[in-house]
Amino acid sequence: MSRASLDKQPRDVAAMFDDVAERYDVTNDVLSLGQDRLWRRAVLKAVDARPGERVLDIAAGTGTSSEPFADNGVHVVPADFSLGMLRVGKKRRDDLGFTAADAMRLPFADASFDAVTMSFGLRNVADIDAALREFARVTKPGGRLVVCEFSQPVNGAFRKVYSEYLMEALPRVARRVSSNPESYVYLAESIQAWPDQRALATRVAAAGWGEVEWRNLSGGIVALHRAVKSA
After folding, report:
1. Are 121 and 142 in contact (CB under 8 A)?
2. Considering the entire predicted model, what is its pTM?
3. How far is CA 64 from CA 113, 205, 207, in A?
């Protein structure tokens, strides 16, 4: 199946990411007009991991989001449920401990990490609330959660232009640069169906996280949600 439907069957979504793994990072750079690099830096700053801390980077893909942590002396575990992504990442950075993992059933002990971060992956999980609870389970008391995900632009006029780009221009560009352009039709549809900033914050809090806050990046195209596990 080349395009995962919005019911997000895990096997279909994993297969989709396996298909695009080789050109995934290049395609994202093109489609985001280079903004993805700014978003990754914002995640790094929000997690605020210190050397020696343990960070779980779930939905790490090929590891581009994990590399800055490792380069700063943080013990990072890049995890993903797409084996294709993990294979590409391992070829690039064989020093990182790439791990196959399902966000809804993480293969880690309770209170294993000082922080959990997920960039552009929560939208693809079949049970978002179960995943958020799992993140809390594996996080130490006082530990942090940072979720970077597509969201809703705050300006109405810009939101209309952005919506048209998602549904019309993005798939056309993807056909030129991606190995599986149909997967980017899924991407556009999943972004359109995703809850806005406040709705996601409510779900994070309901999963047991405290001090939930968010800030918008690129006018709300992306939102960075941060929370703390209570002691």
Report:
1. no
2. 0.82
3. 20, 28, 28
- Nearest Cα to 13, choosing from 81, 76, 62? 81
What are the pLDDT digits (tens) for 127-176? 999 999 999 999 999 999 999 998 988 887 877 777 766 666 666 665 66
Provide the 8-state DSSP code for 230.
Answer: -
**First-to-last C-alpha distance (Å) of the chain:** 44
User: Could you give the strand order of the β-sheet that contains 139-150, starting from the edge strand earlier in sequence?
Assistant: 99-100, 75-80, 54-58, 113-119, 139-150, 222-229, 209-217
- CA 177 and chain centroid, separation: 21
Q: Tell me the DSSP string of 168-203.
A: IIHHHHHHHH-S-THHHHHHHHHHHTS--HHHHHHH
Q: What is the mean pLDDT of residues 12-33?
A: 54
Q: Which of 36, 1, 39 is nearest to 17 (CA)?
A: 1
Report yes or no: 188 and 3 within 8 Å, Cβ to Cβ: no
Give 169's Cβ-side CA count (13 Å radius): 10
Query: What pLDDT does 134 receive?
Result: 98
Phi then psi for residue 223, to 5 deg, are -125, 140
Farthest CA pair distance, the chain? 49
Q: Whole-number mean pLDDT of the chain? A: 84
**Spatial distance between the Cα atoms of 173 and 149, rounded to a whole number of angstroms:** 21
Count of residues for the chain? Answer: 231
Tell how strand 139-150 and strand 209-217 pair up: unpaired
Q: Report yes or no: 47 and 105 within 8 Å, Cβ to Cβ.
A: no
The two tokens of residue 16 are: 């989709």
